[in-house]
Amino acid sequence: MKQQLLVPDIGDFEKVEVIEVLVKVADKIKKNDSVVTLESDKSSVEVPAIHEGTVESVNVKVGDKVSKGHLLLTLTNQIQSKEKPKKIIEEKLPPDTEKIINEAEKTLILKKEVVEKKDKKINNEISKIQITKDGDIDPIETKEWLESLSAVLQNDGKNRAQFLIKQLIEHSYKEGSDLVLSRNTPYINSIPPEEEQKSPGDQNLERRIRSLIRWNAAAMVVRANKKNPELGGHIGTFASAATLYDVGMNHFWRAKNNKFGGDLIYFQGHSAPGMYARAFLEGRITSKELDKFRQEVDPGGLSSYPHPWLMPKFWQFPTVSMGLGPIMSIYQARFNKYLINRGLLKDEGRKIWCFLGDGEADEPESLGAIGLAARENLDNLIFVVNCNLQRLDGPVRGNGKIIQELEGIFRGAGWNVLKVIWGSYWDQLLVKDKTGLLIKRMGEAVDGEYQAFKAKSGAYVREKFFGKYPELLDLVSQMTDKDIWKLNRGGHDPHKVYAAYHNAMKNKGTPTVILAKTIKGYGMGKSGESINTTHQQKKLGDEDLLYFRDRFDVPLTDKQVKNVEYYRPSENSPEIKYLKECRLRLGGNLPERSSFAKAIKTPPSDIFSAMKESTGKKEMSTTMVLVRMLTSLLRDKNVASRLVPIIPDEARTFGMEGFFQKIGIYAHEGQKYEPVDSEQLSFYREDVKGQVLEEGLTEAGAMSSWIAAGTSYSNHDISMIPIYLFYSMFGFQRVGDLAWAAGDNQTRGFLIGATAGRTTLPGEGLQHNDGHSHIMSSVIPNCKSYDPTFSYELATIFREGLRRMYEKQENIFYYITTMNENYTHPAMPNDKTVEEGILKGMYLFKEHKKFKKTKIQLLGSGAILREMIAAAEILEKDYEIDSNVWSVTSFNELRKEALEIERYNLLNPDKKPKKTYVEKCLTSTDGPVVAASDYMRMNSDQIRPFTSKSFYSFGTDGYGRSDTRKNLRKFFEVDKEHIVTYSLSVLAKEQLISSKLALDAMKKYKINPEKPIPTKL
Ligand SMILES: Cc1ncc(C[n+]2csc(CCOP(=O)(O)OP(=O)(O)O)c2C)c(N)n1
Ligand SMILES: [Mg+2]
């Protein structure tokens, strides 16, 4: 049987060009094999076969223009495909919300919990519930309702009770109530004592170990600051979080080893001393190294905070810039699932834990992506918010309650929220209180008060907390002030913390947040505990140190305490043995960073050869070239599966919609609907195995995905190649701190600042016209940034990036700008030095040497190179001036190299000076230098010091605005007319020509010398 393959619906495009024919007569092809590549003026797309068979005739050739319905090829098909013709996801019915809800609720009713009937005593207790009158107009009625609910809880369990409450709420809305019912639960622990999973650990030993870690962590900070107060450090943060970390380390967090991938823990930045102190007990860090806390200039120092760049075998995640840890951990958890769903990683039930401060929760990045975590069912993610109620200057929510606020936010987003507020000493009191007043009082007191309670004394708590209601004073009348002082907070109670972690580990379908209430500076005594200055406390006086020692029973003499000595019990001590056994059981040490990823072979150069040929008359933008190149790379078997295209809602802008169909958009639930454009070739195809991360509108999220993918070589031992494309203006400027963290994290990958340049993206105006991203990228030491003009330059840079990052496994990343301006691209010059020049940052593009009188060096970059090329021609034709036109692919790279050479020369005054690459290029040339790019002058100015020639920079300083490219280049004075005029003026200044020529040119080109500099407009 014969089959015809026609051009499918390709959207709004007509007469698109065939740029590749991927099959020939007699080829056997399978369904979905690509047969031709079509390219419109915006995007390219591969057309897949919709039948299998043998190619009988190919009816198109490269260069043909085709539209929908055009015959591409005919196939003979002996083997009748068993599959029916594809009617996209026809089986999947569109979701019927009503139906889903009904079904879910039915199962809720059917899934009657098996409830243990508790003895009658509890029922008797229920009948004793007393209702206070505050705000209650009918306490008896309230009591009846509550008793009914208690009975349901007893007999049918909490799911049934929840169901009834939900029905009541919905009913009240239907009956006209528009009051918002609480998004909060009472201010008590989420897990009732009877449901707590008990820790199997030896609590006495664990307390002793924890005390030693606390001591050593504080000691290292105090000792560093005794040496030199400049060094700084924090005691209070870890003091509040020690139990939260210890329980995880002893019981939950599994390390990476040859059998398991390892849990990934984002430690809160300021708690770093605690991690060093534990590593010291484990024997991984020596006391000498502890003494080098925050002294990193010589090798062996310990970094202030988690910095993988500085401690590449220890720290995995840079977290100290508040908010970055939380958002990066969310996208890390999501990326883990992405790798699993794509079949690249085994599902081992690994977890991602992220520790953050309650003050840190105010950062938009901390909470900004929690919706995604719930939406994507990231049950591999656990947040622990250390709610010590304080940040740096004072209380986080003096007048409110941070735990309740966060509970509402996370519950609203769909997270499993576990509040760990009260320690075990409160359990009995809560049981004893039959008035309901204790919970009421707990709910009333605000965080400012809770902070003060722990800064003062038991007597103060009795008076101010319990004293509000006589019934509560009665409740604690048998307790001494010391007993009251002992009433502990949940985050300091290992039992409560264990129970919460256990619940979090078992939770399915949603991410979990643990809101643990703690005390900032716990154990630091009067000068540190729960007071407003705790955060920056880095010195402890003798009295505080002795108090600390006594409070935690650290076996040190007074003298040793005053000397602030570290304490490590002997190797055979029960503490050290226990500690090591725990870690052995959990597979190894944490934190620890390693990589066993295999190198990826660089794709052969012929994959890039099409980009090195002239495009002839065909005009293309460099963004299109890039998309073409990625399409070719998807055919390389070593690279294809590793590519992770990341696009935040901008695929169509960059002509990348062809990727939707080809490699699919990652969606953890697949596609539950028939897309509106399902008849088109590039339809919006979501797939659980999808490769594209279509992030929607979140640059911070996209950047976090990029970091997760770019560090996969270490966190998952598999190298991935993330390519994140964005509007260049919304890159470094928007998420610069994440880019900085990416550098610290040794991320490998490509950042593509598309639609780049101040004058290249004309209509979009001030907020879109980027003239400074290359300045911003230049500040990151391991970021290599390039501003190529022609397709062969881009291909050369990209291939070298693949080679260096994935074959040589260098810890660098690339920032490359691409433009949306269409123009023709010449073939790559045959000269061997061109490739080297492109990578080093400049090469001679064209030499004009007709007149041999006056010469000028024109250095152009990115979009402005073409203005330079045009200016050179005018200078030759109209003014008999020769020139060298240099294509500068990276002023940043040129500067970096030059700085290194200059430094070498200064440090080796006795040796023959080396020449910078800039000098090598320019020294033996004639005439002054005129350099320009589509970025601020500071971009080209970077190399000004490295040539003895007169050097003049031009660029696009100032706010962008919308207009045509031509007008914008004129406005910013980087169009060919200004380049010609300025060149003439420069030559006149150098007394190489008469100034009249420049004045004439100004007249000719209507350049007004009175116009203010664009920075003032
Ligand atoms: C982005 C950012 N802004 C400011 C800081 C400085 N800073 C460090 S810790 C801190 C307060 C942190 O409070 P919280 O998150 O509650 O942590 P805690 O120490 O109380 O556990 C501040 C403002 C920072 N590290 N990062
Ligand atoms: Mg805090």
Largest sheet: 6 strands, parallel
Low-pLDDT parts are 83-97, 107-114, 116-128
Report, as a whole number of angstroms, the end-to-end distance.
Answer: 70 Å
Strand percent estimate: 5-15%
Number of strands: 26
Descriptive notes:
It is a single chain. Helix 34 (937-941) links the parallel strand 25 (929-932) and strand 26. The protein has a six-stranded parallel sheet, sandwiched between helices. Helix 3 crosses helix 4, helix 9 packs across helix 25 and helix 25 (699-710) packs parallel to helix 27 (732-744). It has 37 helices and 26 strands. The protein is globular, with a radius of gyration of 34 Å. With 1017 residues, it is α/β, with parallel strands linked by helices. Bound molecules: thiamine diphosphate and magnesium ion. Thiamine diphosphate is lined by residues 237, 240, 270, 320-322, 357-360, 386, 388, 390-392, 396, 520, 535. Magnesium ion (MG) binds next to loops.
Quick description:
The chain has 1017 residues and is an alpha/beta fold.
